[in-house]
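Following up on my earlier thread - several people asked me to post the actual chain instead of describing it. Fair enough. Here it is, all 441 residues.
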Amino acid sequence: MRIVIGADEARRTILRRVPLDEWDVPDALRERDTALFGERLPLDALIGRIIAEVRAGGDAAVRRFNQALDGSADMPVEVPREEIGRAYAEVPADVVEALRLAASRVRAYHERQLAHNWRSFHEDGLGQVVRPLRRVGVYMPGTAVVYPSSVLHTVVPARVAGVKEVVLAGPAGASGAVHPLKLVAADIAGVDRVFRASGAQGIAALAYGTESVSPVDKICGPGSLFVTLAKRRVYGVVGVDALYGPTETVVVADESADPRLCAADLLAQAEHDVLASPVLLTDSLRLARAVQAEVDRQIGPLERGHVARQAFDNRGGAVVTASIDEAVELANEFAPEHLCLLLRDPWRYADLVRNAGGLFVGESSPEALGDYIAGPSHAMPTGGCARFQSPLSVNDFLRIISVVAVDESTFERLAPAAARIARAEGLTAHARALEMRLEGR
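Reply from S.P.:
Thanks for posting it. Predicted structure:
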């Protein structure tokens, strides 16, 4: 793990943002699409081609891309309920119970969010009605790594919001089977239907529909670069929750922090992806060096240690700042998905945090707890989007309809001013729609 000194060097190196369009795509993936289309298309053109062919070809196109791009067996697009039921026999009972506990905590947290939605009218005749989306599609990533937690953290808030139908789409294995952990999580979360439709073809199927898949109102959930670019492409046809990139965690720590825990928290995110950003910000060179040594010690036995090591080489490391205040300010600039405060007095600095997807305060609240069972959805903004975007919540699955129902006296008081503004804009029909009502009184 590299160590850099000073905020300016950090901005130039470890904290430098890589734009979405500059993400690396493994050569092996590009070789597959080259073989499929007979030429190496620019990435955006490739996504557009896949989407267009799914719109035209429906299920057959989805199945063809599943085979060609994933090496998956040719199977019907929809996973039958019997296969979902059989999945329970393949998942250890204690894991099923853990998933149920996680689902219950995610549900309870988001039910509290729902209680804060304003649905009433005020005395002046203004208000709003809140309606859930009708149909939502959730993308479930992962074949090499399986993420049943992502299913829970995306589907449960939709169900709490009152979405009528929630469907899942995502990759299947070489045999064509969807991993049983995903199917069990889908059943616990309350998913209606599951589809074998990965990558851009999965997003296209959800957006435009096929013989098996009804088009949805909104697509949610993280995925690969292909998924992210496809979501961006279909936005406007459907809603999307966010454009998720590789995971990122910033740990702000002072000399009081345990270097073992700092290293463990960084490694927990580094093992996700070679493009993950595990970053330590500290005012202590001694702590930085101790964490560096701990990362080297702890990384060896990890099953995905090779992935974590590449993540540190690519986008990770430690930054030694002039003070903890400067460290928090750097974190605000970076606007990370996860911001962890391992400090002697973490609440003093929590009030200074402006930009983060999730804030994890103190050693007893590690980000790994939030990934699974704490309660808030772990679908959080990445790539610096925490400057303007919030984590997934029930509000992502609700539509607010503004209501104007003023009485006659309020209309008579407001309409003259509205008519003057309309005439100032040159929109005389607007003005007459108001003035005709006034003339009749």
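The chain has three domains: 3-20+246-374, 26-244+387-405, 406-439. That should answer part of your original question.
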